[in-house]
Amino acid sequence: MTSRAAARPVGTVTRGTTNPNRLRRMDRWIAATHGAELRRAADPVAVDLGYGAAPWTAVELLTRLRTVAPRAHVVGIEIDPARVAAARPYEREGLAFRHGGFEIPLPRRPLLVRAANVLRQYDEDQVAGVWQRLCARLAPATGTSGGGLLVEGTCDEIGRRHVWVALGSEGPRTVTFATRLGSLDRPSDLAERLPKALIHRNVPGEPVHAFLRDFDRAWAAAAPYASYGARQRWMRAVRELTADWPVTDGPVRWRQGEVTVRWAALAPRL
Questions:
Q1: What is the per-residue burial (b if ≥16 Cβ within 10 Å, else e) of 229-242?
Q2: Closest to 49 (Cα-Cα) out of 115, 105, 2
Q3: Which of the 8 DSSP states describes residue 224?
Q4: What residue spans of 18-94 are helical by DSSP H?
Q5: Which of 25, 29, 52, 79 would bridge with 101, disulfide CB 3.0–4.6 Å?
Q6: Percentage of the chain with pLDDT > 90?
Q7: Cβ burial, residue 243 (10 Å; 0-12/13-18/19+)
Q8: pLDDT, tens digit, for every residue of 34-79?
Q9: What CA–CA distances, in Å, run from 109 to 9, 24, 47, 85, 139?
């Protein structure tokens, strides 16, 4: 009885909603910001945690990671055994599927864990514990590596709007907002895709609410740049934000419809 309980995956089954190309924004950011770490490793392992009812996101993650780290391997992990069985025909060199949950049942610690749209059904007070468990499974930092990365966030059904938190073994580092700029009325439209740790904190008095308020104001002030296109307006608005908020990236990422801010600036108040 004890061994069976210990082997039981940690977590609950998600709705499993998935669509091809849904996580493209997150994948592009991972390849750009974490690709060097994956490339330096002799045999880097990345995990697509909770990939859902179809394996498309794991297949796509392998393709995108191999453009920057040709030796990368991807393991899709799902808590629903039926989903694992359905994904097995898609296995190939560098791509495998395993039954499991937040315990990450792999013999080696991964350099990347991507958990997209997994925690939305959980309570806010459960998030910190899940983050801690997943971060503990990341590959440790060494003399030649900064260690593994956990990327956890939420997007809409076709991937036009996405917000995620990046965490290392020490905990959360940054929050990234990413969008298809042509679909955006104002930056605070992204509030509906805030990850579970932040979505209930988008209220007056909380830092994330202040950030989105300031972003909307900067967007409005940048309205004259709209004649040059939504990208130029976004870039101008983000540049204005840098005066008061610790934006960690630059124009190369802003042009993609992204902005990344230090977690400490947006973290919920106790």
A1: ebebbbbbbbbbbe
A2: 115
A3: G
A4: 24-40, 56-66, 81-87
A5: 79
A6: 90
A7: exposed
A8: 999 999 999 999 999 999 999 999 999 999 999 999 999 999 999 9
A9: 17, 24, 10, 23, 5
What's at 140, amino acid-wise?
Answer: P
Quickly tell me which residue has 């007070």 as its tokens.
Answer: 125
Measure the CA–CA gap between 102 and 12, rounded to whole angstroms. 10
∠ CA 174-175-177, rounded to 5°: 145
From start to end of the chain, where are the E strands? Answer: 45-49, 73-78, 95-99, 112-116, 149-155, 161-168, 171-179, 258-262
pLDDT in tens, 245-265: 999 999 999 999 999 999 999
Separation of CA 216 from chain center = 23
pLDDT digits (tens, 9 = 90+) for 87-129: 999 999 999 999 999 999 999 999 999 999 999 989 999 999 9
Q: Which two structure tokens, joined as six digits, stand for 178?
A: 């990413």
